Phytase (Flavobacterium humi), 341 residues
Amino acid sequence: MKKYSLLFVAITALCSCREEKPAMPITPDAITQKTINDTDDPAIWVNPQDASKSIIFGTDKETNGAIYAFDLQGKIIESKTLRGMKRPNNVDLAYDFKINDTSKVAILAFAEREKQQIRVFSVPDMKPLDNGGIKVFEDATLPDFKLPMGIALYHSPVSGKMYAVVGRKTGPKQNYLYQYELQAQAGQIKAVLVRKFGDFSGKKEIEAIAVDSENGFIYYSDEEFGVRKYYAEPSKGNQEIAIFGQDKFLTDIEGIAVAKTSEKGGYLIISDQQRGLFNVFDRESNQFIKAINLTTVETDGCDVVTADLGGKYTKGIFVAMNDSKEFYLYSFGKILQEIEK
């Protein structure tokens, strides 16, 4: 009897630290057309001339992979889709990269794992800016440590510099992430390694990386351990600031989206993959708020913008990968109502 009593106590303790599944799921406003292989991670470009013509980019993760481009109705934009990529994994987007003395461009960056490199393209013209690819983790001594997976871009409000923060499929318990400064040279981009940082529990892997540029933080998912937080500015050092969310996820902690409701305020929305939920944390304090149900299955990556895109998306759009070769698109206004009620 004692054995079973202890088991009951353990199960009760485990359940008590996680909310029950929310009763009312939020349904998507649109679902993208299917990719060929395996969707993984999205990034959203807001069209500065006409926000209703913004583009959702999403990775299709396989040897014959692609970066798909979708309109806000979820239809594939073939002219903006990048095919023939060797297992593209995570993707991110940033604005106002100074490509020469007179021009700034939006850039799309993603990890191309099987080529041990990252790729950088201009948006929306989709021109390569990387001379065919930028090698990463070149000093790694183990072959598996050279395979990039997660990526996030940081545009420093302090220096104006653009950085790529890159993680890998497998890595050491210290210095799992490398941060590269992206520099323009004759209309192309090169990457200069500026630091190595980031602890790893060793439990599974690190994939999802997100940067809150306005507040100056990098977040990443140590998948079976917790969400780790570091300074984004290299000059602030490599000391870990915080670990949170350790009792809020069933197993894998996945995609991280930074929802900005003001310059500093808003939410971190993080995929609780095996429960099919998203855990919401306060952007400034990182305190847990609640779990929400968006009906996706086995979600890896997610992204959000809070700009007015018109139509259903006047308060922005939230995009999440679904485990059936597609992405789900949600009015962020609906999600905001659920978070704040």
User: Anything to note?
Assistant: The longest helix spans residues 2-16. Residues 21-340 form a domain with the Neuraminidase fold (CATH 2.120.10.30).
